[in-house]
C-alpha cells in the first residue's frame, strides 16, 4: 500500500470500466483523483456510453478509500474545454498533478456502421488522447508520468481489414497504432525534463466495450445470434493463455506501476497485458 501516496492523478474515461478501475486502484495506493468523463450517447456504439451516475459512483468509490475525488464532465475531443477543466481541477487539488492516464475511448464495431464510426473513433481515441496529454503537460513537473491506453490491436499488422469489423474497428486500430509512435516520440522529447510517457496495451478487457452484441457478432460471424458464451470461444482462441479476456484490474496494476516512482526510469515502454495474443500471432 502507499505506492502513489500524495500524488494527484488525472484519468479520462473514468466513469466505469478500465477508467474506474484505475481510479479506485490508484486511490487505494494513496493518490487523489481527477476523474473526467462525459455522459453521452451518440448512437455510434451499440453499447451505451457512460452516465453521470456512473461518474459519481467512481468518485464515491475513490472517496471511500479516504482520498479526494475531483469530477469534471467534459468531452476529451474539445481541447479548450478540456484544458479549462484540467486547470480548474488541478487548482482544486492545490496545484499539483503527478500523473495522467489518457484512457477514454470507444469501439463502434460492425460492418453496418457508417463512416462516422471511423471519424468519431479517431477523434476520441486519438484526438482525445492528444488533447488530454497536451492540456495536462503544463501541470506535470519533473518526475511526472503519462500513461496512454493503447491496445494489442494497435500492435498488430493490417488496417482493420476484417469485413465484419467495419470502419469503427479500422479507426480503432489506426488510433492505437498511431499512439505507439506518439509515445515513442514524446518520450524522447520529455526525457530532458525528467518526465515520462508509457503505454499499456491490453487485449480484450471485460467491460461494456467488449460485452455487447455487436462485438459478439464480429467475433463469431459464423453464428446468426451469438451470445457471450459463444463469443468467449473466439476470444480464447486469440490468446496463448486459455482466457477469453482480462479484467480491468489486470490493467490497473500496470497503470499503478507506471504512475509510481517504481518506474521512475521507465519511459517509451509498451507494456502488453494481452494474455499472449501477440506472441501467438508471431509478433
TrEMBL record:
Which keywords describe this protein according to UniProt? NAD, Oxidoreductase
Gene3D superfamilies named among the record's database cross-references: NAD(P)-binding Rossmann-like Domain (3.40.50.720)
Q: Does the keyword NAD apply?
A: yes
Supply the CDD domains for this chain.
SDR_c (cd05233)
Q: Which family does it belong to?
A: Belongs to the short-chain dehydrogenases/reductases (SDR) family.
Q: Which InterPro entries match?
A: NAD(P)-bd_dom_sf, SDR_fam, SDR_subfam_1
**Which named protein is this?**
Mycofactocin-coupled SDR family oxidoreductase
Any Pfam family the entry gives: adh_short_C2
Q: What start and end residues bound the annotated signal peptide?
A: none
